[in-house]
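User: I'm writing a tutorial on reading structure tokens. Could you give me a worked example: one chain, its sequence, then its tokens, then a sentence or two explaining what the tokens reveal?
Assistant: Sure. Here is the example chain.
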Amino acid sequence: MYIFLCNLSFIDISYTSTILPKLLDMVLTQCKTISFLECFIQVYFFMSFACTEFLLLAAMAYDRYVAICHPLRYSILMSPKRCAYLLLAVWIAGFLDPVIHTSFIVNLSFCSSYNIDHFYCDVSPLLTITCSDTFTISIWNYINGTLIGISSFTYTLVSYVFIITAILNIQSAGGRRKAFSTCASHMTSVIIFYGTMISMYIRPTSTYSPQQDKFFALLYVVCIPMLNPLIYTLKNKDFHHVFKKLETKISLNKRNITFLF
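And here are its predicted structure tokens:
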């Protein structure tokens, strides 16, 4: 599980880094422009890391399924070698998937306006200012969303149906609680991530709302990477142990400081 968490942390840092540095630069300098090349690079890497996270969360759901439903075979089914192959497939698929999407966007014509109502380059705001025919790319949006988003979500959902069924069949309340705690953090991350992404992308282009999209984008870019470490560490016993030691040390070192003036 920690191997998957390392990859999830790296993805969170990476897709945030494709947007926040440029956003902070625009806020500080008030220069709200970006070159076409930088814009297309931002679109590609943002979509790549988003697709990779979709697939990684599905892989993590499979990991939790094996841990709960086949605990005696876990070391065989999720050996380090198989984990490495699974992660390699996730990263390759995640970075290959946006290639077609980005090629469509690169070939768009922008003849009337170069102003987008957003704080980073994304597919929806770019489609609203293009004078090219967007039918093909809109169809590809739905195909791509189905292949990556909906299929990953369906796989994760089916995995949790089996997981919850297995947990309910455990006789002791303590065993059920322990089994549920092993997948509660992942389930929380899945709900937040998929809820945000579905609200942003799995809908018709005609219903595009700049204010709504900027809200969900800010939630996705800033809040989710910040929440994921908290979600996964709050139930970690090592974290609790270190936190209690730190709390004890602070309480022992409490002293009053007198100002001399």
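What the tokens reveal: DSSP finds eleven helices and no strands in the chain. The longest helix spans residues 36-69.
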